[in-house]
Amino acid sequence: MPNIAKPSIQSLLIQMQVNGHALSTGTAFVVDTAKGPHLITNRHNVTGRNQDTGAPLSPTGGLPTEVVVLHNAKGQLGTWVPRVEPLYVGDAPRWREHPTLGAKADFVALPLSGLEGIDLYPHTPENPGPAIFVGPADPVSVIGFPFGITAGGVFGVWATGFLASEPAVDFNDRPIQLIDCRSRQGQSGSPVIAYRSGGMVAMADGGSAAFAGPVWKFIGIYSGRINMESDLGIVWKAAAINELIHAL
Predict the structure, then answer these.
(1) For residue range 124-165, what is the model confidence (pLDDT) as tens digits?
(2) pLDDT at 166 exceeding the cut of 70
(3) How many CB atoms lie within 10 A of CB 91?
(4) Are 137 and 163 in contact (CB under 8 A)?
C-alpha cells in the first residue's frame, strides 16, 4: 500500500439502519475519552430527524435503531471491517449530547464496542494540531463520503473549500463557523481540517514555520449547509467537541 494521508483513514463511513434495513449513509470519526473510544458524528445522523423541524429525514419515515461503522482492520491498511453499534438500550439513547447545548448542538458522542481486530486513528480536538493560521478565505477540507461515495476502498473523499467566517466569531450565537465548499449529503459528520502539504506555512502568531512534510489542524465537524440553495456549510468548532468529550 503506497503512502496514504492519515486523514483519509480517520474518516469512517457509517450507515444508519432500522432493524437491519438501510436508511442513509454519513460520516464519523473516533476520539479517545476518559471512558474509552467514542464515535463522533452529527446528531441528525443518529436521530434520523431534521435538526430544525424534527421531521424524519428518510422518505420512508424510518428512524435508525443502529449504525454500521466501517472500521480500519487491524494491521491491514486498505481493509475495512463493519461493526454494528446499537443506538438505544431499551428506549434510552446510547449517545451523549453537549453538556449545555444539548439537542441544539448537531453532534454527539457514541461509545464504541466490539473493537477486536480494529485499528483506531482518532482525532484529538483538545490538541488539534500545529498552530497553523486559518482565517477567512484560507483552504479547509471536509473529508467524508458524499452520497456514500468513497475514494477507492473506503478511503474518505476530500472536498476542499475555504473558511467563510472569522474563526473567533460564533455564527448564530453558537460555536459554529462557516465554510464555502461544495459539500453534500453523506458528508454529515465529516471532520474538517486545514491541511498543508509542507514547506513554509503561516502560523497563528504571525510568523511562519518550515515543515518537512504534511501538517494539518483539526477545525471541527461538518453538519450540512445553511440551506439547500447555498454552498455555505456549517462547522461546529473543535472547542465545542472538546467540551462534550470532557463531559462524558
Answers:
(1) 999 999 999 999 999 999 999 999 999 999 999 999 999 999
(2) yes
(3) 5
(4) yes
Instruction: List Cβ neighbours of 89 (8 Å cut-off, separation of 6 or more).
Output: none
- What's the topology of domain 6-119? Thrombin, subunit H (2.40.10)
What is the Cα–Cα distance from 84 to 65, expressed in whole angstroms? 10
Cell of 239: 472547542
Structurally, what CATH architecture does the domain formed by 139-239 represent? Beta Barrel (2.40)
Residue 40 is placed in which grid cell? 463522533
Domain spans of the chain, in order of start: 6-119, 139-239
Closest CA to 16 of 51, 52, 44: 44
User: Same fold for the domain at 6-119 and the one at 139-239?
Assistant: yes
Whole-number Å distance between alpha carbons of 165 and 76: 40
- pTM reported for the whole predicted model: 0.96
Which amino acid, 183? S
Using CA atoms, how far apart are residues 136 and 165, in angstroms rounded to an integer?
6
3-class DSSP assignment, residue 1: coil
Mean pLDDT of 1-21: 92
